């Protein structure tokens, strides 16, 4: 295998260039769930295509069509495909990432403009998408660029697949992958995704499981328009009262989900799985620090991690249509929509979950005797995934981590979701490795999202080393 020390030195020397490029992409507010920002998501996709072309990849944009969001028909952003190298004597690695981001605004509590990458003295680079997932996506590009600049042969062929709807249901992606399994993806030997985080803040990990996600909108409609609570309060069924009651029937404050039958299919805990939690080097105080609170439900670290990885959870996210401004507005909102989602685990399926949620809410609404109307909509559902830690793809990731960080990584599952992971595994029949770049306290989806400069640079080295280790794998 090539000596990678010159590559590592080169990556360190080019830190400023990599950071400038990250600044450039953070400044594109590619928020997939905001209809007004949809042009920015397209812009970000085209930015990536241009970079891939600049590096010599053959690219193709796949436009999955349109979808309706907030009553508006919108063009789905392109899935950016790129082929770099077609040498039949080399293995082909498919790398996936997403270029859309979660919403962010200063008013949420950010200490700097979310779309301006802000470098802090402690090495943190703060900005929306820095860790989720623009930093890692860019990392793959710099791996290719560094090899070119040093004249080192890239030991594998690469296929890129970057989507712009991951944070909003990955619409159109699964269909394209299935349709192209024997086409664009035909020669793929292994898949790697860098889109999650270490378990803590100091030790790297590789990840072999993800929870799924099923998102819902629960709408209660009453009066024809918003009403004066002094004039109408006490005289009619109020949508907000019904909604709050219904949302309260979903989950207990201790996290227990109240939907009948929801735990029926949850996989049993085996001794082998339990042993994995026992050896984990996990400090709950890091989780508390990253959350900015000491409000954990479970005292025991093993229970905490199991409830994050292997049990479902239900979170209430927000209410559309409700008054949320400052001061008091004595109004009865006419129509309110509660948003919640369930993180799902083996062996739950989105269809089964949606059926149980709907049956439960319909039964609860019936009990209210309300004259309002209620509608439950399943917004998007992604399946959970568990990979095989013993596969050579994971061995390559492990060796790469050991080389770059000098420690054996934690082997983790992730509480979040990357719905495409299982699709790649099933449709292509190939192993998918999750190789994270960022840390547990990066604040993905939260305020002040950041990527540490050291994680960015070591992450680029890690992705590069993984490709070399995979190329050296004889068992693949
Ligand atoms: C883990 C990954 N970086 C991520 O953040 N995934 C999202 C996917 C999603 C699903 N609905 C909206 N976004 C997540 O786990 O929330
Ligand atoms: Zn995300
Ligand atoms: Zn992500």
UniProtKB/TrEMBL annotation:
<feature type="binding site">
    <location>
        <position position="195"/>
    </location>
    <ligand>
        <name>Mn(2+) 2</name>
    </ligand>
</feature>
<dbReference type="InterPro" id="IPR002933">
    <property type="entry name" value="Peptidase_M20"/>
</dbReference>
<dbReference type="Pfam" id="PF01546">
    <property type="entry name" value="Peptidase_M20"/>
</dbReference>
<keyword id="KW-0482">Metalloprotease</keyword>
<feature type="active site">
    <location>
        <position position="100"/>
    </location>
</feature>
<feature type="domain" description="Peptidase M20 dimerisation">
    <location>
        <begin position="209"/>
        <end position="366"/>
    </location>
</feature>
<dbReference type="GO" id="GO:0046872">
    <property type="term" value="F:metal ion binding"/>
</dbReference>
<feature type="site" description="Important for catalytic activity">
    <location>
        <position position="228"/>
    </location>
</feature>
<feature type="binding site">
    <location>
        <position position="167"/>
    </location>
    <ligand>
        <name>Mn(2+) 1</name>
    </ligand>
</feature>
<dbReference type="InterPro" id="IPR051458">
    <property type="entry name" value="Cyt/Met_Dipeptidase"/>
</dbReference>
<feature type="binding site">
    <location>
        <position position="228"/>
    </location>
    <ligand>
        <name>substrate</name>
    </ligand>
</feature>
<feature type="binding site">
    <location>
        <position position="132"/>
    </location>
    <ligand>
        <name>Mn(2+) 2</name>
    </ligand>
</feature>
<keyword id="KW-0479">Metal-binding</keyword>
<dbReference type="GO" id="GO:0070573">
    <property type="term" value="F:metallodipeptidase activity"/>
</dbReference>
<keyword id="KW-0645">Protease</keyword>
<feature type="binding site" description="in other chain">
    <location>
        <position position="445"/>
    </location>
    <ligand>
        <name>substrate</name>
    </ligand>
</feature>
<feature type="binding site">
    <location>
        <position position="445"/>
    </location>
    <ligand>
        <name>Mn(2+) 1</name>
    </ligand>
</feature>
<feature type="binding site" description="in other chain">
    <location>
        <position position="417"/>
    </location>
    <ligand>
        <name>substrate</name>
    </ligand>
</feature>
<dbReference type="Pfam" id="PF07687">
    <property type="entry name" value="M20_dimer"/>
</dbReference>
<comment type="similarity">
    <text>Belongs to the peptidase M20A family.</text>
</comment>
<dbReference type="InterPro" id="IPR017153">
    <property type="entry name" value="CNDP/DUG1"/>
</dbReference>
<keyword id="KW-0378">Hydrolase</keyword>
<keyword id="KW-0464">Manganese</keyword>
<feature type="binding site" description="in other chain">
    <location>
        <position position="195"/>
    </location>
    <ligand>
        <name>substrate</name>
    </ligand>
</feature>
<feature type="active site" description="Proton acceptor">
    <location>
        <position position="166"/>
    </location>
</feature>
<protein>
    <recommendedName>
        <fullName>Peptidase M20 dimerisation domain-containing protein</fullName>
    </recommendedName>
</protein>
<feature type="binding site" description="in other chain">
    <location>
        <position position="343"/>
    </location>
    <ligand>
        <name>substrate</name>
    </ligand>
</feature>
<feature type="binding site">
    <location>
        <position position="132"/>
    </location>
    <ligand>
        <name>Mn(2+) 1</name>
    </ligand>
</feature>
<feature type="binding site">
    <location>
        <position position="98"/>
    </location>
    <ligand>
        <name>Mn(2+) 2</name>
    </ligand>
</feature>
<dbReference type="GO" id="GO:0006508">
    <property type="term" value="P:proteolysis"/>
</dbReference>
<feature type="binding site">
    <location>
        <position position="330"/>
    </location>
    <ligand>
        <name>substrate</name>
    </ligand>
</feature>
<dbReference type="InterPro" id="IPR001261">
    <property type="entry name" value="ArgE/DapE_CS"/>
</dbReference>
<dbReference type="InterPro" id="IPR011650">
    <property type="entry name" value="Peptidase_M20_dimer"/>
</dbReference>
């Amino acid at each position: 295998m090539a000596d990678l020390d010159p590559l590592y030195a080169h990556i360190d020397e080019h830190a400023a260039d990599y950071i400038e490029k990250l600044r450039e992409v953070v400044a594109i507010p590619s928020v997939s769930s905001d209809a007004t920002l949809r042009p920015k998501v397209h812009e970000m996709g085209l930015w990536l295509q241009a970079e891939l072309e600049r590096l010599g990849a053959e690219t193709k944009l796949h436009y999955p069509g349109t979808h309706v969001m907030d009553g508006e028909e919108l063009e789905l952003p392109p899935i950016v495909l790129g082929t770099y190298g077609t040498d039949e004597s080399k293995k082909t690695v498919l790398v996936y990432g997403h270029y859309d981001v979660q919403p962010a605004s200063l008013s949420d509590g950010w200490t700097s403009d979310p779309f301006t990458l802000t470098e802090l003295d402690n090495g943190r680079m703060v900005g929306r998408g820095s860790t989720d997932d623009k930093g890692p996506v860019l990392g793959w590009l710099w791996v290719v660029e560094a090899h070119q600049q040093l004249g080192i042969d890239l030991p594998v062929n690469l296929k890129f697949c970057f989507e712009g709807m991951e944070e909003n249901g990955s619409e159109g992606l699964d269909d394209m992958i299935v349709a192209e399994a024997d086409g664009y993806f035909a020669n793929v030997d292994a898949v790697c995704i860098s889109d999650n985080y270490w378990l803590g803040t100091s030790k790297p990990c590789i990840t072999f499981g993800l929870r799924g996600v099923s998102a819902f909108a629960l709408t209660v409609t009453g009066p024809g328009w918003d009403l004066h609570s002094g004039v109408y309060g006490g005289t009619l069924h109020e949508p907000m009262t019904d909604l709050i009651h219904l949302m309260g029937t979903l989950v207990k404050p201790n996290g227990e989900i109240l939907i009948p039958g929801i735990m029926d299919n949850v996989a049993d805990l085996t001794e082998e799985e339990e042993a994995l939690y026992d050896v984990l080097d996990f400090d709950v105080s890091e989780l508390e620090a990253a959350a900015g609170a000491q409000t954990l439900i479970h005292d025991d670290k093993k229970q905490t991690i199991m409830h994050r990885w292997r049990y479902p959870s239900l979170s209430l996210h927000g209410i559309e249509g409700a008054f949320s401004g400052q001061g008091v507005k004595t109004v009865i909102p006419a129509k309110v929509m509660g948003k919640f989602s369930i993180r799902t685990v083996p062996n739950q399926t989105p269809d089964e979950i949606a059926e149980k949620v709907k049956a439960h809410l319909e039964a609860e609404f019936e009990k209210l005797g309300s004259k309002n109307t209620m509608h439950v909509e399943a917004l998007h559902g992604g399946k959970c995934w568990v990979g095989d830690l013993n596969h050579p793809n994971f061995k390559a990731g492990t060796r790469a981590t050991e080389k770059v960080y000098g420690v054996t990584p934690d082997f983790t599952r992730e509480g979040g979701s990357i719905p495409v992971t299982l699709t790649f595994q099933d449709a292509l029949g190939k192993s998918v490795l999750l190789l994270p770049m960022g840390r547990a306290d990066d604040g993905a989806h939260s305020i002040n999202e950041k990527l540490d400069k050291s994680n960015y640079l070591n992450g680029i080295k890690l992705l590069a080393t993984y490709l070399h280790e995979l190329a050296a794998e004889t068992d693949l």
